[in-house]
Design a protein that fits this description.
Layout (H helix, E strand, L loop, with lengths): L1 H23 L1 H25 L3 H25 L3 E6 L3 H35 L5 H10 L13 H9 L3 H45 L1 E6 L4 H10 L8 H16 L2 H6 L5 H27 L8 H14 L2 H14 L8 H10 L1 H13 L9 H13 L8 H11 L1 H12 L2
Antiparallel strand pairs: 1-2
Amino acid sequence: MLFQIILIIPFILLLATIALAPFINEKWWHKNYPYVSYSLGAVILLYYLISNQTDRLLISLEEYFSFITLLFSLFVVSGGIFFKIKGKSTPFKNVLLLAFGSIIANIFGTTGAAMLLIRPYLSSNEYRFRPYHMIFFIFTVCNVGGSLTPIGDPPLFLGYIKGIPFFWIIEHLFIYWFITIIYLLVLFYFIDRRNFHKVRENIQEEIEEKGEELRYGGLLNLIPLGIIIGAVFITKPLFLREAIMLVTAILSYKFTSKNIHNINRFNFGPIKEVAILFIGIFITMIPAIQFLSENSKSFGFDTVTTYYWGAGILTSFLDNAPTYLNFLAVSMANYGYDINLQSDVLKFVEVGNQYIIAISIASVFFGAMTYIGNGPNFMVKSITEHKIRKTKIPSFIHYIYYSIAILLPFYFVLWLLFFRL
């Protein structure tokens, strides 16, 4: 067991570095994060190659390729579609945009939806921007909104790859999505309404003159988007799904007007960072998943409550995708099932659905608790800092104050209603 724990150290180091390095020395991190990810991943890669345990390694690399292909494809296609809100936004229009984003996050993915809507959202609110505007965008569009389909958020897609049926997710998670989105939108409306009335007198004439005009372009990219979504359902032969997604994304990028990419300030920087960090995560987490699967019973994970709060807490400060896989592996191991066997996953869907629901909700919803809980959170923070210069953007700790005050009490209510088992 001691050697197993030693093998987990690169995984812990990588996640800890991702969480802390940007705040300790941001310039150093942006320059050196590829070396951190590659070097820690190489340690585990060499171990599994030397010990001739290539089966687990190949499974993890296959999952990574499927995972990053979907993210890349959605990122590229969404970069070819733009929305622009001209004029000053009102609380009601803000609510509509957040609601719209929470729906399309299940089609574009939380990353695609966030990149598509954050700039027009910020532009229309720039005249009265407050930190809560960005924070509620992260809560809804970047996290909670994407909990209805495997496309919506990376943890759910990994579950789908493992064998959880596509439509099982919306069937079992819709009620949690609906209740939480309504809560967040209603709360946001009253907060935004109060802010709006404070500045309304000074800009009333400007609002009435300009109105709120919606402009858009690149809608032909809805066709490749539909192709990518359709490809998700392809399971055989191996990598046909990914090939279709990549070819579609490349064609979308090639035939999209450069003007649209310029308007969106589209570049490959964000997806490059995700790809580099996650190759390290997917490789280093192999020993962690193996260790949890083999020792799950000794950890006392045997109730829905422990999975809900355990996955939620780890998701908040690590990344939700590996957290989801680790806890799913543990819950299945308690029933004698192997997460790497699709036949076992399908059996567990029948006998352990409450565990899957708890882990899924925790992995997606608690991703909004910190900037590092989910990839799009950091992207939105970065864009907001660049776009809104007159208002200080919440720091890591300041952001947590908001999430604890707004999200945690409601997540506690969800636990009382659904997961107190």
